Amino acid sequence: VLSALLNGRIVLDVQHALSVEERGFAYGHGVFETMALRDGRVRFLDDHFERLSEGCTRLKIPIPSTESLLSDVSQLLEKSKDGVIKLIVSRGSGGRGYRPEASLIVTRLALLYPKPPDQSGSISARWCNTRLARNSQLAGIKHLNRLEQVLAQSEWDDTAIGEGLMLDTEGEVVCGTSSNLFIVTSGVLSTPDLRFCGVRGIMRLQVLKAARCLGIEVEERALWPDDVESADELFVTNALRGIRSVVRLERREWPQSSIADRLSHALEAME
Amino acid sequence: VLSALLNGRIVLDVQHALSVEERGFAYGHGVFETMALRDGRVRFLDDHFERLSEGCTRLKIPIPSTESLLSDVSQLLEKSKDGVIKLIVSRGSGGRGYRPEASLIVTRLALLYPKPPDQSGSISARWCNTRLARNSQLAGIKHLNRLEQVLAQSEWDDTAIGEGLMLDTEGEVVCGTSSNLFIVTSGVLSTPDLRFCGVRGIMRLQVLKAARCLGIEVEERALWPDDVESADELFVTNALRGIRSVVRLERREWPQSSIADRLSHALEAME
Question: Taking the CB of the first residue and of the last residue of chain A, which one, N or C, has fewer CB atoms within 10 A?
Answer without folding.
Answer: C
